[in-house]
Amino acid sequence: MTPSRKLPVGVQDFEDLRVNGYLYADKTAYVYRLASSGKPYFLGRPRRFGKSLFLSTLKAYFQGKKELFEGLAIAGLEKEWIEYPVVYVDFTLGDVARVDRLEGTLHLNLERTEKQLGINLEGETDPAKRFSKLIEQAREKTGRKVVVLVDEYDKPLLATMDNPALNDEIRTVLKAFYGVLKGSDANLRFAFLTGVTKFSKVSIFSDLNQLQDISMNKQFAGICGISESELVDNFQPELQALAEGTGKTYEETLAEMKKRYDGYHFAKESEDIYNPFSVLNTFARLDFGNYWFETGTPTFLIKMLQAVDFDVPQLENDVQIPANAIMDYRVDNPDPVPVLYQSGYLTIKSYDALLDEYTLGLPNEEVKYGFFRELLMVYMPGKNINREFFAGSFTRDLWAHDVNGFMTRLKAFFSGIPYELNNKQEKHYQTVFYALFTLIGQFIQVEYRTATGRADAVVQTSDAVFVFEFKMEANATAEDALRQIDERGYLAPFAASGKQLVKIGVEFGGEERGVKRWVVA
After folding, report:
1. Confidence check: pLDDT of 421 > 50
2. Res. 507: pLDDT tops 80
3. What is the structure's pLDDT at 293?
4. Among 211, 424, 480, 484, which residue has the least CB neighbours within 10 Å?
5. Rounded CA gap, 121 and 51, in Å?
6. Residue-wise DSSP of 355-389
């Protein structure tokens, strides 16, 4: 059965959503709380997490559109609806990866508000000065203080991260533009800015001392996304239709949704949050998929990991980070963990109050498998990952106990790695192996640690256990790898399993700069 209710897939405008009868998980209590308790706020959330819709909700509220909020939580809270002049800056309106185009986008946003208010500032060529004059004249013309809403404030910075010189130029323009908010404080009723990453040394954070960053405030942990209670309370027909469409029970469907799309935490204490974009697309298509990754890739993040020689395997085994570093990303800081958290590829798993330290990890299977597939694309240049590498092909070999077939396929996959990768060869290959076996883990159980040490990979099927050990050092052999498996007892935990136990020692190197030999025992 296909549900007849309208799902807001891609809908980011609150008025459109309400007028056209789309489903809505009510977030308006957060609107009232924010509007009643402060002025300048910043909210950081991953892309496609509902920031634009929430900002649009704020816009409708401050424009006094009471009729749009009938039946929602705020209708029982707000007693006086007042229309304020709203300056809405949306960086999706144009190209922001060049200074001239960024300035053009800023002018376009300001001009749009000017037309709504009957103000003409086209003669002002400096976007920061134009912004300042607009706020001042809007206050004078309406007799009311101004509301400023900025969507994806950091898009120009993220778009130029791989070009430091241009990034500095972009930063200078934004610093002047956002600096207007401090000088205009007396004319502002409310200001709210959203983004993915909290960049240091940008005016809104270094100059606006009163700016409240609510990104990790537990009171606002559910401000974007879909909580587990919201999923069950608001989407019962869709969950039932998905269960029928995929041949699962209702309970199995909930478990699959949780495994794939849940797991985000945005505070020390937070209810689990689901990725809203993936949830809505799953309901709309009645199929489980990696929808978040279809809309963009974390290539710049993976290049960061590659540039600093990051130990990628630790991402799945959880990463510790001090509380004062988790939301403070600096371009000149080689540690990619803060931006991995802010971008949604890691999330909070726990908090240690004694050490004031967070433990981070991958939130769910959609992120895990999508991230490692993209990682392979960057670490294996020249390879068509979708055609030449398919985890199912490797999996079928192991199901059939065809270790030689598996290794032959692996050798072919590693062939032709560019020579220039050779100086970081060992770490590079280790990362590729880890990504490859992680993706195989979609189909069969893959482990990396035993009680007696860390095997390179342990793969379990229904009737066999395969332990892989790779030797990449000079003069190390496949036989050395087998001896390590025995000496460290990597197979000991599986001795009583009744399964066939298989050891694979692999030797790397030679002119091929890839798999040279392997021995099976």
Report:
1. no
2. yes
3. 81
4. 424
5. 29
6. TTEEEEE---HHHHHHHHHHHHHHHSTT--HHHH-
pLDDT tens digits, one per residue of 191-232: 999 998 887 655 566 666 678 899 999 999 999 999 999 999
Residue 467 CB burial class (10 angstroms; 0-12, 13-18, ≥19): buried
Task: Report the residue count for the chain.
Answer: 521
Structure tokens at 329: 């990303």
Residues 145 and 47 in one domain: yes
Amino acid at 98: R
- How many whole angstroms separate alpha carbon 385 and alpha carbon 369? 13
Where residue 50 falls among pLDDT bands split at 50, 70, 90?
Answer: very high
In angstroms and rounded to an integer, the radius of gyration of the C-alpha atoms of the chain is 26
Shared domain check, 284 and 423: no
Q: Kindly state whether residue 374 falls inside one of the protein's structural domains.
A: no
369-386 confidence digits (pLDDT tens) = 888 888 887 777 766 666
Do the bridges between strand 40-44 and strand 86-90 make them parallel or antiparallel, or are there none, so unpaired?
unpaired
Assigned token pair, 249: 């029970």
In a domain, 17, yes or no: no
Domain that holds residue 430: 384-520
Rounded CA separation 47/148 (Å):
21
Q: Is residue 152 domain-shared with residue 285, that is, in the same domain?
A: no
Tally of CA atoms within 13 A in the half-sphere of 492 that contains its CB: 14
**Do 287 and 230 share a domain, yes or no?**
yes
Name the pTM for this structure.
Answer: 0.89
Same domain? For 332 and 279 the reply is no
- Identify whether residues 193 and 270 lie together within a single domain: no
Query: Is residue 102 within 8 Å of residue 87, measured between CB atoms?
Result: no
CATH number, position 125: 3.40.50
Domain shared by 256 and 124, yes or no: no
